[in-house]
From TrEMBL:
Protein family (similarity comment): Belongs to the ComF/GntX family.
CDD domains referenced in this protein's UniProt entry, alphabetically: PRTases_typeI (cd06223)
The name this protein goes by in its record: ComF family protein
PANTHER family xrefs: DNA UTILIZATION PROTEIN YHGH
Domain of life: Bacteria
Domain Phosphoribosyltransferase: 134-226
Length: 230
């Protein structure tokens, strides 16, 4: 049952849809009905090979991969990601993670996962934002799937300049060997799900995948909240 004071707070500060930011969300949801009906889901998780996996073909050994939503500038997904990154709403990310985790469970492609590993932020960025959005997303997925999220399995060893606007090769060169395994035994011989917020060039995910592969993991899958054009 909703606490009595929650109703007063909602009257004073009515919750808004996480996508359009205008309409009131449905009860026990983060989106309004219109945005749910127009949610740009990719459906990639239903197919072992899809545009997400093709993006990494020949670069890493990837079992399968998927993104929850399509990203377009000015669209609802961009507004959602902005809230996640800059408006201090970790509970929103957890909800999205649980939602997507339940979808993944409906496909046999994702049933053998042992552990969720989020892409780490450098500690300076995490201190500034207050949390790592990829780690919170991973925790939501792990909770829905009944598995462990090892948010400290990887560490980012350098604080690189912004990667925005760079092409994939430039990003790979900039990132280099930024990601290191803190404890290889955490992931050794495990079926790993690597998670991040957005797939753009894939350079960050590729660097993390190579670090995980050095521990001789059993298999690798990857998911993100959103993806641009692939």
């Amino acid at each position: 049952m909703t606490p009595w004071y929650r109703h007063i707070i909602d009257l004073l500060y009515p919750p808004l849809c996480a996508s359009c930011g205008v309409q009131r969300p449905l009860d026990h949801h983060i989106f309004c009905l219109d945005c749910i009906n127009e949610l740009p889901e990719t459906g990639f998780h239903q197919y072992a090979e899809n545009p997400f996996t093709s993006h990494f073909k020949g670069r890493i050994d990837l079992k399968t991969g998927a993104a929850f939503l399509y990203f377009s500038r000015g669209g609802g997904t961009q507004r959602l990601l902005h809230q996640i990154k800059y408006n201090n709403q970790p509970e929103l990310i957890v909800t999205i993670g649980k939602w997507y985790g339940k979808q993944l469970l409906q496909s046999e492609l994702w049933n053998e996962i042992d552990i969720v590993v989020p892409v780490p932020l450098h500690w300076k960025k995490q201190r500034k934002r207050g949390y790592n959005q990829s780690a919170v997303f991973g925790e939501g997925i792990a909770e829905a799937m009944g598995i462990t999220c090892q948010k400290n399995a990887l560490r980012r060893s350098t604080h690189d300049k912004s990667l925005t606007g760079m092409k994939r090769l430039e990003r790979v060169q900039t990132i280099g060997s930024s990601f290191v395994l803190v404890n290889p035994n955490l992931v050794k011989e495990k079926h790993v799900l690597l998670v991040d917020d957005v797939l753009t060039t894939g350079a960050t995910l590729e660097s993390c995948a190579l670090a995980l592969a050095s521990a001789k993991i059993a298999s690798l899958r990857m998911v993100t909240i959103a993806t641009g054009e692939l």
